[in-house]
């Protein structure tokens, strides 16, 4: 019964998010329309990270954006599109044109600057009594590119539903800031190096939340080799308080995917966690995660859709759960 109630609640929440995204897309379309009804923003600003052309062609289009951001008014005079929406989206396209075009993995943090809304759901099999814990939201959310080397992500608390006697509830609010240090597009190196700082705030009640603020610095790198992409992160979870209980952890993830026709991305990931201090001092757990991502597919103007699924499989003797099934829906824009 709790699972059904949680699923219904998550369904309503997901529908609400979809409506917000649709409204946002319509707002972008309305604000990027000129005085001539036939003018479309997509004719002057190409979503270069999603175009079906080569990286060189995408980069050349981005370089030409500054020369093609005006249209004619009713009197035949040139009118420059200098509102904040055009300026922001122009900047986003420049960022996408100066880095590789890899897909977001299922578990590993995307080792690129991305602009999208992402909603994940997961169902993990608890190791003791074979019950299932469902997580609707799974610490994913809105990711925005505000500057040429920065991405900011705000991830609403997920809602956890337990089949056991543990009370259901919301988890912690989390966030992430990405800084791109070095990058090159396909054909010019096809790599990315960046530094990320994430964290979580104790908005949830244990065990649904950690009960303490945690900061997570991360080093991220990615390399493309033909149709193959490798994305890797290594970071630490450092509690601001409660270290004697939570301990400090090292988190190491690597995802390898293969690109088929730019729309099909089979992949496998390894997800490792090592504890120092706290109740799990000296423990380590490793999961292998086969998965598949499809997309992206155009919906309206800049708004696209991609989705994927995968399953984490424990491969070490110690593990906090046996299997974890993940469904991921992304709306790049």
Structural features, described:
With 333 residues, the protein is α+β, with helices and mostly antiparallel strands. It contains four helices and 17 strands. The protein has helices at residues 2-31, 55-63, 84-97, 243-246, and strands at 70-72, 78-80, 116-125, 132-137, 142-147, 150-155, 159-162, 169-170, 173-184, 191-201, 214-225, 228-239, 248-258, 264-276, 284-300, 303-314, 323-332. The strands form two sheets. A twelve-stranded antiparallel beta barrel has the order 3-5-6-9-10-11-12-13-14-15-16-17. Strand 11 and strand 12 form a beta hairpin. Helix 2 runs antiparallel to helix 3 (84-97). The longest helix has 30 residues, at 2-31. The model is unreliable at 1-80 (pLDDT under 50).
Question: Summarize this, please?
Answer:
It is built from 4 helices and 17 strands. It is an alpha+beta fold and 333 residues long.
List the main descriptive attributes of the protein structure presented here.
single chain; 333 residues; alpha+beta; disordered N terminus
Structural class: alpha+beta
Radius of gyration: 21 Å
What summary fits the major beta sheet?
12 strands, antiparallel, barrel
Query: SSE order in H/E notation?
Result: HHEEHEEEEEEEEEEHEEEEE
Low-confidence segments: 1-80
Q: Tally the beta strands.
A: 17
Q: What does the average pLDDT come to?
A: 82
Question: What oligomeric state best describes the polypeptide chains here?
Answer: single chain
Q: What is the end-to-end distance?
A: 37 Å
Number of helices: 4
In percent terms, what proportion of residues is strand?
Answer: over 45%
Q: Identify the strand order in the major beta sheet.
A: 3-5-6-9-10-11-12-13-14-15-16-17
């Amino acid at each position: 019964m709790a699972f059904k109630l949680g699923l219904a609640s998550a369904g309503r929440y997901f529908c609400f998010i979809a409506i917000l995204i649709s409204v946002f897309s319509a707002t972008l379309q309305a604000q990027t329309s000129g005085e001539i009804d036939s003018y479309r923003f997509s004719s002057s600003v190409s979503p270069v990270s999603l175009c079906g052309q080569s990286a060189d062609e995408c980069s050349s289009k981005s370089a030409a954006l500054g020369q093609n951001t005006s249209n004619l008014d009713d009197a035949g005079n040139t009118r420059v599109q200098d509102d904040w929406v055009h300026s922001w989206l122009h900047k986003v396209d420049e960022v996408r044109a100066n880095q590789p075009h890899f897909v977001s993995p299922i578990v590993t943090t995307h080792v690129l600057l991305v602009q999208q809304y992402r909603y994940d759901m997961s169902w993990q099999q608890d190791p003791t009594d074979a019950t299932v814990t469902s997580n609707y939201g799974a610490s994913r959310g809105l990711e925005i590119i505000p500057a040429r080397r920065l991405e900011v992500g705000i991830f609403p608390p997920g809602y956890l539903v337990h089949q056991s006697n543990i009370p259901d509830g919301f988890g912690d609010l989390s966030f992430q800031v990405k800084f791109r240090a070095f990058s090159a597009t396909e054909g010019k190196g096809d790599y990315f190096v960046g530094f990320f700082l994430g964290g979580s705030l104790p908005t949830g009640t244990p065990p649904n939340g950690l009960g303490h603020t945690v900061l997570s610095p991360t080093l991220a790198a990615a390399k493309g080799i033909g149709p193959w992409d490798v994305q890797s992160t290594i970071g630490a979870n450092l509690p601001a308080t409660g270290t004697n209980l939570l301990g400090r952890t090292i988190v190491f993830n690597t995802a390898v995917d293969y690109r088929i026709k730019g729309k099909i991305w089979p992949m496998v990931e390894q997800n490792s966690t090592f504890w120092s201090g706290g109740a799990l001092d000296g423990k380590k757990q490793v999961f292998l995660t086969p998965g598949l991502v499809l997309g992206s597919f155009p919906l309206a103007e800049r708004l696209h859709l991609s989705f994927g699924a995968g399953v984490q499989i424990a491969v070490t003797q110690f593990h906090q759960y046996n299997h974890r099934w993940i469904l991921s829906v992304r709306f790049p824009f």
